[in-house]
From TrEMBL:
GO terms, molecular function: N-acylglucosamine-6-phosphate 2-epimerase activity
Family: Belongs to the NanE family.
Gene Ontology annotations for the cellular component aspect, listed alphabetically: cytosol
Keywords from the UniProt entry: Carbohydrate metabolism, Isomerase
GO BP term, pick one: N-acetylmannosamine catabolic process
EC number(s) reported in the record: 5.1.3.9
Pfam family membership, one: NanE
Listed name of the protein: Putative N-acetylmannosamine-6-phosphate 2-epimerase
Organism: Nocardiopsis algeriensis
Superkingdom to which the source organism belongs: Bacteria
Enzyme class, first EC level, given as a word: isomerase
The protein's role, per its UniProt record: Converts N-acetylmannosamine-6-phosphate (ManNAc-6-P) to N-acetylglucosamine-6-phosphate (GlcNAc-6-P).
Catalytic activity as recorded in UniProt: an N-acyl-D-glucosamine 6-phosphate = an N-acyl-D-mannosamine 6-phosphate
Length: 228
C-alpha cells in the first residue's frame, strides 16, 4: 500500500492502540495480536502497537495500517527515542513509525528531522510525529513528518493536562498544517471521537477505553464506591 493509499484508509476512522504495560497480565505479544484482531473485527481503521515483537505478531495477524513504536525509559523522550529504534520499528513491520517529536533531547543526540529522513530514505515508511503543542506540530511538519498526532499533549512540561482530549490543539493543528492530524490522548467516549473529527482530525486513536481492562474495571468500581 502506498503512503497516500494508507492515509486514505485511515481518513475518518478509529485507530485502536493495542498496548499493555510491563507487569500486566496482558503484556504478551500474542495477546496483543488477538486484541488487534478483535479491534479489526469491530471496524478499526488501523492499529497502533508498542514493542518490536508485538508489531511483528500484529503485522502477521492483521491486514490493517499499523502504527508502531518502541517505548524506552520512564521520563523525557520515551516513544521511539533513537534513530536506531525508529528503524527497528519500521523493519519489524510497521507501516508508520511513531516518534516523540517534542524537541526534547534524545539519548543518541538525534533530532526528529534526523529520524524522519532516515526512516524515509532507508525504509520508505511514513512517520507520525507525536507532539504536545502547536509549535511542536509546526516544527514536525517542517522536519518532514507525514502525520502529526496530539499524543503527548498533557504529558510534557510545556502542555497542561486537560481532563479529556486536547481538542483545541487538534483544531489548531488541523487549521495550520497541510499534513493529516491525528487526535490521540484521553479519548474515552464515542462522542469525543465525533467531536475530534468535526474539528479537523484526519483520524482518531483510542486506546485505554477499548484495550485496557484494568483501567476500565477501575472506572466501574469507582462508580460503585463513590467517595471511597
Amino acid at each position: 500500500m502506498t503512503g497516500t493509499a494508507l492515509l486514505e484508509t485511515l481518513r475518518g476512522g478509529v485507530v485502536v492502540s493495542c498496548q499493555a504495560y510491563p507487569g500486566e497480565p496482558m503484556r504478551d505479544p500474542d495477546t496483543m495480536a488477538r486484541v488487534a484482531m478483535a479491534a479489526r473485527d469491530g471496524g478499526a481503521a488501523g492499529i497502533r502497537a508498542q514493542g518490536l515483537e508485538d508489531i511483528a505478531r500484529i503485522r502477521a495477524s492483521v491486514d490493517l495500517p499499523l502504527i508502531g513504536l518502541v517505548k524506552k525509559g520512564s521520563s523525557g523522550v520515551v516513544i521511539t527515542p533513537t534513530l536506531a529504534t525508529a528503524l527497528d520499528v519500521a523493519y519489524a513491520g510497521a507501516d508508520v513509525v511513531a516518534i516523540d517529536a517534542t524537541g526534547r533531547p534524545r539519548p543518541d543526540g538525534s533530532t526528529p528531522a534526523d529520524i524522519i529522513k532516515a526512516v524515509h530514505e532507508e525504509t520508505g515508511q511514513l512517520v507520525m510525529a507525536d507532539v504536545s503543542t502547536r509549535d511542536e506540530g509546526l516544527a514536525a511538519r517542517d522536519a518532514g513528518a507525514d502525520i502529526v498526532g496530539t499524543t503527548l499533549s498533557g504529558y510534557t512540561p510545556s502542555s497542561p493536562k486537560t481532563e479529556g482530549p486536547d481538542l483545541d490543539l487538534v483544531e489548531q493543528l488541523a487549521r495550520d498544517l497541510d499534513v493529516p492530524v491525528v487526535a490521540e490522548g484521553r479519548i474515552h467516549r464515542p462522542e469525543q471521537v465525533t467531536e475530534a473529527l468535526s474539528r479537523g482530525a484526519h483520524s482518531v486513536v483510542v486506546g485505554t477505553a477499548i484495550t485496557h481492562p484494568t483501567t476500565l474495571t477501575g472506572w466501574f468500581v469507582a462508580a460503585a464506591r463513590p467517595g471511597r
